[in-house]
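User: Okay, second chain of the day. Same drill as before: sequence in, structure tokens out.
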Amino acid sequence: RKILWEMKHLEKSGPVWIGFSCHPQSTTPEVMRVHDESPAAQGGLQPGDVIVSVNGNRVETFRDLLGAIHCLPAARVARLRVLRDIHELEIELEPRLAEDRLTTRVLNHP
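Assistant: Same drill. Structure tokens below.
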């Protein structure tokens, strides 16, 4: 479904970029860093947030999170449920194709 959606709407497909980092050895998908001007930053994700679901699919481990992100189509709104302090919030963001991110970086930084 991801490939079909991207090909229909973007005329290309590939891995997506959301723009945050988690500690890969952590047992929970806690956000360590949010990259400037990324979909994650634009959606309001913050360091310390713990991601508990992606598009309604429960996320309990870093590996679960990687699998959920891998299935996200680019340029289509994704909904992340996060724990921030003692509150559960929903964050909407729009993943970008990773190759588009690299092209933008090259063009903006000679």
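The two ends are 36 Å apart (CA to CA).

User: Thanks, on to the next one.
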